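#struct-pred

JT: dropping the chains for the assembly here, can someone run the whole complex?
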Amino acid sequence: MSEQAEHKHTSVGTYLTVAAVLTVVTLVEVGIFYVPALAPVLAPVLLTLSAAKFALVVMFYMHLKGDHKLFTVIFTVPLLIAMAVVVALLFLFGTIALG
Amino acid sequence: MSTAAHYTSTGLDNRKLGFWTFIGSECLLFGSLISTYLVYQGRSVSGPTPHEVLDIPLTSVSTFVLLMSSLAMVLALAAVTRGDKVWSRVWLASTAGLGLVFLGFQAYEFTTFVHEGLKLQTNLFGSTFFVLTGTHGAHVAVGVLWLLTLLVRSFQGKLGPDKAMVVEVSGLYWHFVDVVWIVIFTVVYLLS
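RK: done, full complex below.
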């Protein structure tokens, strides 16, 4: 089956649903930003919501969910390296610290 | 023209394979820019600081605009794939238009910051902020130009279903620009 044929299985309804979810999650992100009581958990909550939006776009709009696994590998490996570099630099420069 | 010539021994289109590799390299580029911003966060010896200049409501709207442009892009690909010329033009124009609106928001934000005393050379926040968001904005600008060329090709009658892969690759670029902004919006704006 060609790659284009695989994409035809993703319906317009799915694209609209993903857009609606992205909108709602963005509203939630901005909403909790203004709630002082959530300040202690703001970073993990926002990073989780951001990761969810990221995954939705990559899986459904960039079609990685139904595409060949090699594309997922080609994208995910550098992404993980980039994330590791970010975390390593944050530790190295003392922006975040253990204990 | 046969598209078979573009397929590799993996059975995958070489343009798409090459473009995913490019996107992988872009992850490293933006990873380095984001980590630089985070490493220098809060280390400016003089203002303005993020709290003084960042406008969350305004940036939330521009974030929504970019998210909706991704929806328009994927609808453009669907229209091109099914050979719907009218709607492919509508959605390609919408995507480019929303991209221009996003750039307008960014131009307004940058201008406001400069008026408030934050320039590239003002402090560490200014340097890292403008380089990170400016690099992203440059990517959006390139994407808008790419989309406009596709729109012209469509009006020339050269963007039929046989060219769906061309639109898909441009879509990959556009969606990647979108996901980068998803991260920037959280890390730079909401967590600053």
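JT: nice. The first helix of chain B runs from residue 14 to 39. Residues 1-5 of chain B have pLDDT under 50 and may be disordered.
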